[in-house]
Amino acid sequence: MRFLYLEEIDSTNKFAKEGINNIPDKTVVYTYKQTAGRGRLQRKWSYAGEDNIYASIVLKPSNQMKEVYSNLTQLLCVVLAEVFEEYGIVPKIKWPNDIRVNGKKISGILAEGVNEGAFLKGIVLGFGVNLNVPQEILDNIDQPATSLNIETGKFIDKDIFLKKVTDKFCLYYNKFIEEGFGLIREDYKKRAEFLNKYVSVKVFDKTYEGKAVDVTENGALKLVDKENKEHILLIGDIL
Ligand code: BTN
């Protein structure tokens, strides 16, 4: 992996997308100060101080979109979970790719593809990790949130954390592109907090309700509703 450090930027994802032609494959764009971070579903990702991670991995696996690329967020999610565990905490995955600790969000992922017609220029895998967020900032986030320093009681070195994540991601990446989500399916499922629970999942303007029974070979969420009908959801947000 190469690293591209920006002292201050509105959004590492936006920067990576705009500069995709000039940023090589497997480059990590990161900053200590992100002023207009973006989240999934038009949400924002607030700046919570320089001792946290605001990064985007630029990937150029091929010139055409393949189904497995949409699962890269889930690979990064498992990688992040494994790194959190090295710090002695118990992270849980909220489908598709949030990480929570005791029901509070600690990291989020935003993947964006850059295309020109059918030509895939690259994939930008952005992630934000709360490593050292003061409690008063956490209290003002619009959803329950936590930070690794609070969970461990220790200051966390962001450069060490980032290196652990990118090293581990590289370790799995090639095999994952070849084999697909199946490679990590069990690692993902064993940390899934939603399985065997009744959930509401919003997919665009439709909401599905039912029991989350499985995560399929393709990383989709399998839901069984009260009429016993199965729904396979590829995207969405558990409410
Ligand atoms: C989410 O949970 O909704 C996803 C949050 C993703 C935030 C990261 S921070 C680095 C990168 N740049 C952005 O603008 N967003 C992602």
Could you walk me through the main structural features you see in this protein, from its secondary elements to its overall organization?
With 239 residues, the protein is α+β, with helices and mostly antiparallel strands. The protein has two domains: 2-189, Bira Bifunctional Protein, Domain 2 (BirA Bifunctional Protein, domain 2, 2-Layer Sandwich); 198-238, SH3 type barrels, CATH 2.30.30. It is built from six helices and 14 strands. The protein has helices spanning 12-18, 72-86, 135-138, 148-152, 158-179, 185-189; strands spanning 2-6, 27-31, 37-38, 44-45, 53-59, 92-94, 98-101, 104-116, 119-129, 198-203, 206-215, 221-224, 230-233, 237-238. A seven-stranded mixed beta sheet has the order 1-2-5-9-8-7-6, with helices on both faces. The chain has a five-stranded antiparallel beta sheet with strand order 13-12-11-10-14, with no helix packed on it. The protein has a two-stranded antiparallel sheet with strand order 3-4. A hairpin with a 5-residue loop joins strand 11 (206-215) and strand 12. Helix 2 crosses helix 5 (158-179). The model has no long low-confidence stretch (mean pLDDT 96). It binds biotin (BTN). The site of biotin (BTN) has 20 residues, from helix 1, strand 3, strand 5, strand 8 and strand 9. Biotin is lined by residues 11-13, 34, 37-40, 43, 45, 54-56, 98, 108-110, 126-128.
